[in-house]
Amino acid sequence: METPESSFHAWILTGNALNLLLRSISADAFTDVTMREHLVRLDEELKDFPPDEMLTRLHALPKEDKTLLTAASRQAMSIAGENAEIMLGLGREEAEAVLRLLAHESYH
């Protein structure tokens, strides 16, 4: 269920996942320039979304964007591993709940 807290968690997860993938030591892991450019564009677009509206705004994105953000968030969680809560600002359980909400809305 979408709540203000889940929207805030989506804001934290997507922002920190994009930061990890685009600006950290993991940034050089992209071999697909087009994908990286797509994530950079999404990062720019999402930065102005208010936390309490994040899920609503994410649901309004094209399916391709939501799919890429979900994949990027999963990749960031994988990179962070046991340090996910520190590196991404959310525990694995909260992050998975956000990803389920995004996936659920992607098919409506």
Structural notes for this entry:
The protein is an all-alpha fold and 108 residues long. The chain is built from 6 helices and no strands. α4 runs antiparallel to α6 (92-106). It is globular. The mean pLDDT is 88.
Summary?
This protein is mostly helical and 108 residues long.
Share in β-strands: under 5%
The unreliable regions are none
Gyration radius, in Å = 13 Å
Helix share, percent: over 70%
Distance between the termini: 14 Å
Characterize the main sheet: none
Shape field? globular
Annotation, overall tally of beta strands: 0
The ordered H/E elements are: HHHHHH
Tell me the number of helical segments per DSSP (H or I, 4 or more residues long): 6
Mean pLDDT: 88
Helix/strand-derived class? Answer: mainly alpha
